[in-house]
Every structure is written in structure tokens, then in C-alpha cells.
Design goal:
Layout (H helix, E strand, L loop, with lengths): L2 H7 L13 H11 L11 E6 L2 H22 L3 H12 L6 E8 L4 H8 L4 H8 L2 H19 L3 E2 L9 H8 L5 E10 L22
Antiparallel strand pairs: 1-2, 2-4, 3-4
Helix pairs in contact: 2-7, 3-4
The structure holds flavin mononucleotide.
Flavin mononucleotide binds next to helix 4.
Length: 207
């Protein structure tokens, strides 16, 4: 598939067929993901592939419980909460979920900022988390590699409301932390394009 076709045809898939995704196929996709540009080539990512139905269901339960706790404390009604839970747990309909973790990486420039009195949060705000940008590049590659092979994916950060609980369940420990969940499988439904703004709408040439 041509690159421009791949980029324009890819969709976020939220309804999957149940046929399993072979490990070799997932490894091939990850082998494309890791060619992403990444800060200082530190490759601060790891891919945890969960293909056990019970474990995926448990992960969805963990996210649901956390959202229910948050709703109870903020007076959000069950009716309002339902679509939020659905959007954050739809990964449980996929035959496999790729959990992508990241690891904070500090450069010499970051160190100099710290020595000049910047807090960790100020450094993150100033430097815009190169580790997360790197993860984003890898995930986009992963989504493309999956689509090229006929697999649908949905990049998800919604489940991260329960990030510590998911990390503890999956045995992901510091300094690694979950950045996103990517359910993957053969698409049952391919949605229509959500459309995009035109390039000239989002571009400014500064002469
Ligand atoms: C960082 C990020 C987080 C996202 N989180 C979710 C999510 O939690 N749940 C969901 O259903 N979709 C999620 N999406 C998918 C977007 O909703 C989707 O990419 C967007 O609506 C455009 O649709 P398309 O991917 O089909 O072009 C996320 C996408 C990105 C890039």
C-alpha cells in the first residue's frame, strides 16, 4: 500500500473480529514501530502484548472501577458515566491489547535547567516531554504497520485514568509507565473518515 493511501485510509477501529493476532505479526508491526524518530535514540519504550481474554477483561474492570470511584466523588450520574466507561474500556472487545510504556529521559540540557532551579514539572512543560513525543511517533508507526497488514487499532489514553492500577496488575514498575493502550484485531466495522482540516488551515509560513 502506498504511504499516502495508508495515511489517509487508516481509521480508529473500535469493533473487532475475535480471530487471534499471531505473535509473529505483532512482532513485525513492533519492528516497524521502533524505527520511529525518538529523542536521542534512547528508545524509551516497551510493548506489552496482552492476548489473554480474562486478563483483558480484568483490565477493563480495573478502569471501570476507577471511573466509578471518580464519578462517586464528583456526583456524576450513572447515565453520564456510561459513555465515559464505554470509551475507556472498548479495548476489551479486541483479541489483543498492546500496552505501550514509556520512561522519562533527561538530557544534559535538562540537567542544566535543573541546576538553574527549574522544577521537574517546569522542565517537562518547557521541553514538552520528548519521551512522550517519541512514544507517539512509535505508536503512529505501529498503527500504520497494523493497517498495512489488515489489522485495525485504536490508540487509547482513556484507560490511563487507572494507570497505577493497570501497571500494578501488569507488573509494570518504575521507571516505566503506561503511555497508551492499543487494542488490535481484524476490523469488524471500519468507520467513515472523521475528516481533517486542510493543510493551509493549520499552516503558517513565516517569511
Ligand atoms: C493520544 C490519543 C488518545 C486517544 N484516546 C482514545 C481513547 O481513549 N478512546 C478512543 O475511543 N479513542 C481514542 N483515540 C482515537 C481518536 O479518537 C481518533 O484518532 C480520532 O477521533 C480520529 O479518528 P481516526 O483515528 O479514525 O482518524 C485517541 C487518539 C490519540 C492520538
Amino acid at each position: 500500500m502506498e504511504f499516502s493511501e495508508l495515511v489517509q485510509e487508516r481509521r480508529s477501529v473500535r469493533v473487532f473480529k475475535q480471530e487471534p493476532v499471531p505473535q509473529e505479526e505483532i512482532l513485525e508491526m513492533i519492528s516497524k514501530a521502533v524505527f520511529a524518530a525518538n529523542a536521542r535514540n534512547r528508545q524509551m519504550w516497551h510493548f506489552y502484548v496482552v492476548n489473554n481474554k480474562d486478563k483483558i477483561a480484568k483490565m477493563a474492570e480495573i478502569v471501570t472501577t476507577r471511573l466509578e470511584e471518580l464519578a462517586a466523588k464528583t456526583g456524576v450520574s450513572p447515565q453520564e458515566l456510561k459513555p465515559v466507561i464505554n470509551a475507556a474500556t472498548l479495548f476489551d472487545k479486541a483479541p489483543a491489547v498492546i500496552v505501550v510504556s514509556t520512561r522519562l529521559s533527561r538530557s544534559k540540557a535538562d540537567w542544566m535547567l535543573k541546576e538553574n532551579g527549574y522544577s521537574e514539572l517546569e522542565i517537562d512543560n518547557l521541553r514538552c516531554r520528548p519521551d512522550l513525543q517519541s512514544i507517539g511517533a512509535a505508536i503512529q508507526n505501529l498503527l500504520m504497520a497494523a493497517w498495512e497488514k489488515g489489522y485495525g487499532t485504536c490508540w487509547m489514553t482513556g484507560p490511563c485514568v487507572a494507570r497505577p492500577e493497570l501497571e500494578s496488575f501488569l507488573g509494570i514498575t518504575e521507571p516505566d509507565s503506561i503511555a497508551a493502550l492499543i487494542p488490535i484485531g481484524r476490523p469488524e466495522i471500519v468507520p467513515a473518515s472523521r475528516g481533517r482540516k486542510e493543510a493551509k488551515e493549520v499552516t503558517t509560513f513565516i517569511d
